[in-house]
Specification:
This protein has 748 residues and is α+β, with helices and mostly antiparallel strands. It folds into 3 domains: 91-374, TIM Barrel (Alpha-Beta Barrel), CATH 3.20.20; 384-395 and 405-566, no CATH class; 572-746, Porin, CATH 2.40.160. The strands form 5 sheets. The protein has a 12-stranded antiparallel β-sheet. Strands 29-28-27-26-25-24-23-36-33-32-31-30 form a 12-stranded antiparallel β-sheet. Strand 27 (628-631) and strand 28 form a beta hairpin. Glucanases play a role in cell expansion during growth, in cell-cell fusion during mating, and in spore release during sporulation. This enzyme may be involved in beta-glucan degradation. Active on laminarin and lichenan. One of its GO terms (biological process) is cell wall organization. Its main location: membrane. It is a single-pass type II membrane protein.
Length: 748
């Protein structure tokens, strides 16, 4: 459970930048006129849009099928009126693809469908592949009814050409008409998989098939779609005729096969690239990610198109974590949000893609968000624009003794989206941030210091417990010349960190953290807000203001307010009780002590660094001689480590993977085992053994602020160890002191 303290720090840094720019530019920034609307089809295209009549209801509760908690009736109702939940209430995880070439029995189908429904909270099963056994689709439909789960049926084309798909189409449509449960569990019929990509039919012929199927199913009100890749449509000139025929969009999302693929945690731009194409060309229709996943192994037929693409269980897990982390964004996509299936249910169905392995064991914990289990950020007020009619001036008004103030509104107008109680408030001692401190509202603790020279060309931001600034800003007034230097890193251009920064210093400015984009924006009155990539405000700045309250004029200091998302995010895989916990006196490892958590508060380790941080010594409590001395010289191969009683060696001779860019993973060997420090997609630092790539044997928790029972509490940083790590705890502490430095270098 590692907090995103860097995100909190970055909020301060970007705030300082923006306020400085406001002062230096001496003018308000222009309105950010961009909106989030999707390009609409032209008038000449509208005649081709034919969406099936919506007979659903919009309740998110358990009064519609297949909402979680919905109680299946013994018999199907007399009509579909009010039966289906609105598709707009179905986003994020919705279920699994399920391969049926083994022609599973009715009992197997019912068992697996029930497991998907009850264990994973799935709403739907997407059929993948084909079984030509007589009565098979009756078994699928009946099993789904008994399990209380919906079905996305499939007309399977296969990979060997031929016209078997035509017979499968006719059998499926016949079954949908004859089975009395069919229209109450079958949510959609797909043509697939990837008929455009495989060039089974031309775009025009495929569109014709969709229209004919819709006509044959019109009495059942079952939507019809095509399950295919964005690339397949693109190589057919957009295949507008096919999209116009489809009732919903079933998009394949397989970023592992992209030519620029690397790891799953870095795949969001690839996902967004294809998803944006469907949003822009999908005519406002509901989108599902149907064939959607990342393989845990490669084999003939499942090979990447990029040498950097990595296939293993961790990357399969990371991909689903990536989608889960963007739950709120998927909710807001036009057309009713994006629902996604996990491809597939089991490795027995297709090697490497399953959530279960071939022995029936979960390959990794799988508990993603769905629309009935929203993430915390859904409680935030969703905002589409800072340009709201009620705004307040950030200019400090001049108050004269004889001024007539009839009401508060003539002094200040407050943006209503900022009028709520945040999780954390930092009060500024000065409004202009030239030289100020930021204190926590309530206990008055100083968290940050901001110091500028007389010309404001150089500004340092630091914490009170350190003599080394977190960052130093050099504002030189020329595009690409303004610089920023983060602690322990080389100087870079501000524009390399803040996207959108330019010579005119106009809004918005944004930075990325853990695959999310955070943007500072200002409205025409220059009010500042920090927005996440779902366009929800998570931090905002209030300048010094005057208010007329109960007949008296009162002044209010400037402050920076933060929601919970801007304070801390927690990784569930670290949420357990370790054998040993070492509390850090300071968050960093430049100079700190590590004490045993508990009543004894016993000092176990001491880490001492020179002012320049080029030499660090690690001591245990039993000796005055250091266990190890690390020399950081900044040149690959020159960084050294000296263990007590041993010769000096290159650091990368002990820590495999340690190199000039200081990136993860880095590992060492002990008693025949390999132990690896690495970070997850949230930049949380953990030590993993080669026996278990999922659960760390040691992990680090940063200093954090958390809202507990409505109160803001502070938690010291600590290093936690399981029994396996305790047996080699000296090596763990030494390697941690280096891994922590690498983590700091790679976090920004």
């Amino acid at each position: 459970m590692l907090s995103l303290a860097h995100l909190r720090t970055w909020a301060q840094l970007t705030l300082v930048l923006l306020c400085l720019f406001t002062i230096l530019a001496a003018r308000a920034s222009p309105i950010d006129g961009a909106d989030n609307t999707v390009e609409q089809a032209s008038d000449e295209d509208e005649t081709f849009v034919d969406i099936v009549q919506d007979l659903t209801i919009s309740l998110r509760g358990s009064d519609c099928f297949p909402a979680l908690g919905f109680k299946m009736p013994k018999e199907p109702p007399s009509s579909l009126n009010g039966w289906w939940c609105s598709m707009s209430s179905e986003y994020a995880f919705v279920g699994f693809s399920y391969e049926v070439s083994e022609c599973q029995s009715f009992s197997e189908l019912r068992r697996d469908f029930t497991d998907i429904r009850q264990r994973f909270r799935g709403r739907y099963v997407r059929i993948y592949g084909a079984c030509d056994r007589r009565g098979f689709y009756d078994d699928v439909i009946n099993a789904a009814w008994q399990a209380g789960i919906g079905i996305h049926a499939l007309i399977w084309f296969g990979f060997d050409g031929g016209n078997k798909w035509e017979a499968r189409r006719d059998v499926l449509i016949s079954t949908l008409h004859s089975n009395r449960f069919a229209k109450f569990v079958v949510r959609a019929v797909q043509f697939g998989s990837e008929p455009l990509f495989d060039e089974v039919l031309s775009a025009g012929e495929l569109a014709k098939q969709v229209w004919e199927a819709k006509q044959r199913l019109s009495g059942l009100e079952i939507p019809v779609t095509v399950s295919d890749l964005a690339y397949s449509f693109q190589k057919n000139g957009g295949a507008r005729s096919v999209i116009s025929a489809m009732d919903i969009i079933d998009a394949h999302m397989l970023p592992f096969f992209a030519q620029d693929a690397s790891t799953a945690r870095n795949a969001w731009p690839l996902v967004q690239r294809d998803l944006n194409w469907f949003v822009q060309n999908g005519q406002g229709k509901k989108i599902h990610l149907s064939e959607n996943g990342w393989p845990s192994k490669t084999y003939p037929g499942v090979q990447p198109n990029s040498k950097k693409a990595v296939a293993n269980i961790q990357n399969e897990r990371d991909y689903y974590n990536l989608l889960d982390a963007h739950c709120q964004y998927l909710k807001t996509v036009p057309g009713g949000g994006v629902g996604w299936f996990a491809h597939l249910y089991s490795d027995n169905q297709e090697p490497g893609y399953g959530i279960y392995d071939t022995s029936g064991n979960l390959k990794f914990p799988f508990n993603p968000h769905d629309s009935m289990r929203p993430e915390v950020s859904e409680t935030f007020v969703h905002r589409h624009s800072l340009s709201v009619p009620m705004v307040r001036s950030t200019a400090k008004p001049r108050v004269q003794k004889d001024m007539n103030i009839p009401n508060d509104s003539q002094i200040t107008l407050v943006n209503p989206q900022f009028e709520r109680e945040p999780a954390l408030v930092l009060v500024l001692s000065r409004d202009n941030i030239k030289n100020t401190v930021m204190r926590m509202k309530g206990d008055n603790e100083v968290l940050y210091k901001v110091e500028s020279d007389a010309s404001m060309a150089r500004t340092s931001i630091s914490r009170p417990d350190s003599d080394v600034p977190i960052a130093v800003l050099e504002l030189k007034g020329l595009f690409s010349r303004d610089k920023i230097t983060f602690q322990g890193e080389e100087t870079r251009n501000v524009s390399d960190w803040l996207s959108g920064y330019g010579a005119l210093r106009t809004f918005p400015f944004s930075f990325k953290y853990n695959e999310k984009r955070y943007s500072w924006k200002a409205n025409y009155m220059n009010q500042l807000g920090l927005y996440n990539d779902e366009n929800a405000v998570i931090a905002w700045f209030e300048g010094y203001k005057l208010r007329y309250i109960d007949g008296a004029l009162r002044g209010f200091k400037a402050f920076l307010a933060m929601e919970a998302e801007a304070i801390t995010l927690v990784g569930p895989e670290f949420d357990r009780e370790p054998l040993l916990v070492l509390m850090l006196h300071r968050d960093g490892t430049r100079a700190t002590t590590l004490r045993r958590r508990g009543g004894s508060n016993e000092l176990l380790y001491n880490i001492v660094s020179e002012t320049s941080s080029t030499r660090t010594s690690i001591y245990n409590s039993l000796s005055n001689d250091p266990m190890a001395v690390v020399e950081f010289k900044g040149i690959w191969g020159r960084d050294k480590i000296t263990f007590h009683g041993q010769r000096k060696k290159k650091l990368n001779e002990w820590l495999l993977g340690y190199g000039p860019w200081q990136t993860f993973p880095i590992s060492f060997h002990h008693n025949g085992r390999r132990y690896t420090w690495k970070t997850n997609f949230m930049n949380q630092l953990g030590l993993y053994s080669d026996r278990d790539n999922t659960n760390p044997v040691a992990w680090f928790e940063r200093y954090k602020l958390r809202v507990v029972d409505g109160a803001l509490r502070k938690f010291s940083a600590f290093l936690a160890m399981e029994e396996e790590a305790v047996e080699m705890q000296d090596l763990v502490v030494i390697s941690f002191s280096i891994a922590k430095k690498v983590a700091h270098s790679s976090v920004i």
